[in-house]
Design goal:
Number of strands: 5
GO cellular component, one term: plasma membrane
Helix content: 55-70%
Number of helices: 8
Distance between the termini: 58 Å
Oligomer: single chain
Organism: Oncorhynchus kisutch (Coho salmon)
Strand order of the largest sheet: 1-3-4
Keywords: Membrane, Transmembrane, Transmembrane helix
Main location: membrane
Order of helices and strands: HHHHHEHEEEEHH
Protein name: Tetraspanin-8-like
């Protein structure tokens, strides 16, 4: 029984240390993300989520420290605090994972509607064009739905497929019957300076449109996030189970009565046979 108690105790301490390390890393990532999006226009929308992450990560970090302290010093209140706090945090994170899973399709449709509202790209707003430029550069694609045809006759330079990209990405020639113009976008340029040159017939553009790629990347990112948080919830649940096991062992612990040794010999009484005692 003692070996089992020591094994459970060591496992619990290991889980608490692991939770402490993971919480510290997540807290550092959240701080970095907060600083990265601090000047962004989207900061007001994501700020409540960042605050929740701060509270959750700081709470699990402190609770893991209490768990290690309670297990090493056999303090029941610290182990109880760990088990209750981690149970609430695990329940909250599990609910958020379920909500994210069921809202995944809605988020994909929202992304689709937001980008389709930019069509036609030839008459899109300046901010929308900058957004699509960044998407095309990062994901090596062109247009949103029908590829380069979404741009009409003004194909942006971010659609151009270089010789190095042609080996890894599928590129096509726009055609010979239409005059294509490379559109060099600059925020402070005049209207006449936007069109710098004609497209050579040997130039290639990316074949795949960007919207399906963008939705696929967003869907994979959501699935990855849900998977990470589910694994984290499972780790917290393991810690709670071990904490409850330690509490049960503390409750069943029986105090062994002390053994007292004395130097005086015990007193004996001489026994006699029945016949001798009668006489």
């Amino acid at each position: 029984m003692g070996r089992i108690h020591i094994c459970v105790k060591r496992t619990f301490i290991f889980v608490c240390v692991l939770i402490c390390i993971i919480s510290t890393l997540l807290l550092a990532i959240t701080l970095f993300g907060h600083g990265y999006f601090h000047q962004s226009e989207e900061i007001e929308e994501i700020l409540p989520g960042i605050v929740v992450l701060y509270v959750l990560e700081a709470a699990t970090l402190v609770l893991s420290i209490f768990g290690v302290y309670g297990a090493r010093k056999e303090k029941k209140w610290a182990v109880v605090l760990f088990s209750v706090g981690m149970s609430l945090a695990s329940l909250y994170l599990f609910v958020e994972c379920v909500k994210a899973y069921y809202s995944k399709h809605e988020m994909e449709e929202l992304t689709r509607e937001e980008h389709l509202a930019m069509m036609p790209l030839s008459g899109a707003k300046q901010t929308d064009i900058e957004t699509i430029y960044n998407i095309q550069t990062n994901f090596k694609c062109c247009g949103l739905v029908q590829g380069y045809q979404d741009w009409g006759t003004d194909i942006p330079i971010s659609c151009l497929c270089s010789d190095e990209d042609s080996t890894d990405f599928k590129c096509v020639a726009p055609g010979n019957n239409t005059r294509f113009v490379i559109h060099y976008h600059k925020s402070n340029s005049s209207e006449d300076d936007d069109h710098k040159g004609l497209m050579d017939e040997n130039m290639l553009v990316y074949e795949k449109p960007c919207l399906p790629i963008l939705i696929s990347v967003e869907s994979n990112a959501i699935s990855l996030g849900i998977g990470i948080f589910v694994a984290l919830t499972a780790l917290w649940d393991v810690g709670v189970v071990l904490a409850i096991t330690i509490l049960c062992q503390m409750r069943r612990k029986v105090d062994v009565p002390p053994v007292i040794f004395t130097s005086q010999p015990p007193q004996y009484r001489e026994l006699c046979d029945t016949a001798e005692c009668l006489t």
